Write a sequence for this structure.
RNA sequence: UCCUCGGUAGCUCAACGGUAGAGCAUUCGGCUGUUAACCGAAGGGUUGUAGGUUCGAAUCCUACCCGGGGAGCCA
């Protein structure tokens, strides 16, 4: 029996007759020679069939194949300098599993397409070389993130998606009309539950989908995205900054070590990732505002950064920038105030370089019961809805801190992409829910 | 929600008041090393929808629909 291999293993089978099951990626042919390119998910390999050297029937079947037809190619693997992957297959056999009809050909041709068309065909677009590479970088980022926390004493404790109240009281939530007793929303953060979990386990993280009902229509937003959120008991803002630094360096390292081929497909300038080193630059909000005003930004103290502000702040930085001590006013209710400066909060954002903007937001939480109750009132949040949360300040309250990282934003930065939407298999946006 | 740009062949675009076109894709023919292969030919259109102006509208006007980018908001 001829062994079946995956394309990625071709190098180990030079000189052998093998079978590879996949899809026809492209076909170039002349009268007497044909070059079918086969894709199997692990790679792409080019087959060669010379008319004079193979049975007439085989040559004709190969010649008339259509793009993305599912086939099993049989042949002998040969090292070939001219081939992109370094190996080629001299085809000796072909089994057609399903032939794509020429009356209804594969819609995504090797030429260029617009975003609307591609997103409508997302289920097929995922097969293309670029999307295949992005999906693998995403996988690497997620694996690295989980490995990092798992090997640093964190316990994964996932938090609920259906939540009875706003986590932050700020962004717009998706309402779910099902539960009898009260209004329920889709989670916009696992943080409040993370705090409870951290008091049980010491160090925890959650990783799951997050929903924001803002009518955002930008290259940095999705209505459904994935977020990883660590939370540590007995921790301060400074410790959480170091954690974010270590985590990002670990992720960058893993991507550089394991996904060079994918980064090459994406034409990513890897030197920009190679120079990411800790410690990252740090800047107080006050400083950031002064710097921005010097660069011509309209920002005034007390306001939040816009997208262009984030780019201005990081343009002179080789790596990420950590901005902290934001005005309390623009932050969620649970941020611990800065000692002796109550108008500022112990929050931080990590801004990625190259204009990719905020990828991490976090900080130290209020651990004093009275202050927390006061903040709930100031934000017009009902105390009853947060009774379990305030319990955490009654029964062994400790300083604690954590952050959230948007996976898609991180992957966008790693891959050097223009649009966040390419980093998730099926992006959900305000005017796009299909496929 | 607001601002802005766009919608013409399956796809990417041109034509900007006077006969609706090109490249790719598809079909047919040619080519023994192609790399988004190349060369020749053919088929393929209610110009997003509805109204209006005009002798004449893809082109100008109005409304609506659909999408891109951005603002606000955020990861």
């Amino acid at each position: 029996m001829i062994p079946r291999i995956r394309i990625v293993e071709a190098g180990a089978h030079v000189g052998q007759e093998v079978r590879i099951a996949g899809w026809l990626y492209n076909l170039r042919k002349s009268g007497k020679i044909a070059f079918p390119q086969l894709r199997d998910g692990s790679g792409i390999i080019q087959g060669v069939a010379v008319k004079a050297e193979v049975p007439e029937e085989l040559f004709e079947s190969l010649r008339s194949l259509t793009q993305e037809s599912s086939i099993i190619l049989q042949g002998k693997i040969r090292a070939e300098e001219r081939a992109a992957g370094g190996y080629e297959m001299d085809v000796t056999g072909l089994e057609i599993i399903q032939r794509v009809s020429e009356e209804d050909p594969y819609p995504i041709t090797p030429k260029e397409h617009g975003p609307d068309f591609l997103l409508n065909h997302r289920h097929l677009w995922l097969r293309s070389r670029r999307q295949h590479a992005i999906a693998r970088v995403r996988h690497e980022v997620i694996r690295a993130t989980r490995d990092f926390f798992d090997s640093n004493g964190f316990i994964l404790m996932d938090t609920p998606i259906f939540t009875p109240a706003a986590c932050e009281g700020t962004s717009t939530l998706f309402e779910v009309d099902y539960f009898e007793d009260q209004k329920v929303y889709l989670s916009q953060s696992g943080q409040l539950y993370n705090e409870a979990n951290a008091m049980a386990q010491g160090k925890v993280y959650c990783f799951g989908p997050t929903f924001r009902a803002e009518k955002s229509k930008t290259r940095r937003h999705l209505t459904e995205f994935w977020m990883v959120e660590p939370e540590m008991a007995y921790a301060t803002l400074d410790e959480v900054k170091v954690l974010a630094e270590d985590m990002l360096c670990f992720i960058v390292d893993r991507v550089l070590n394991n996904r060079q081929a994918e980064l090459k497909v994406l034409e990513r300038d890897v030197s920009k990732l190679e120079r990411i080193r800790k410690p990252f630059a740090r800047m107080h909000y006050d400083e950031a505002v002064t710097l921005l005003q010097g660069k011509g930004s309209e920002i005034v103290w007390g306001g939040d950064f816009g997208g262009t502000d984030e780019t201005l702040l990081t343009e002179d930085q080789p790596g990420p920038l950590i901005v902290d001590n934001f005005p309390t006013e623009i932050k969620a209710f649970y941020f611990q105030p800065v000692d002796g400066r109550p108008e500022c909060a112990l929050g931080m954002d990590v801004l990625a370089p190259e204009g990719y903007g905020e990828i991490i937001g976090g900080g130290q939480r209020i651990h004093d019961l009275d202050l927390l109750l006061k903040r709930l009132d100031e934000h017009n949040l009902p105390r009853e809805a947060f009774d379990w949360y305030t319990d955490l300040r009654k029964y062994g309250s400790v300083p604690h801190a954590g952050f959230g990282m948007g996976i898609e934003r991180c992957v966008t930065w790693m891959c050097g992409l223009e649009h966040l939407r390419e980093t998730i298999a099926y992006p959900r946006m305000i005017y796009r829910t299909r496929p």
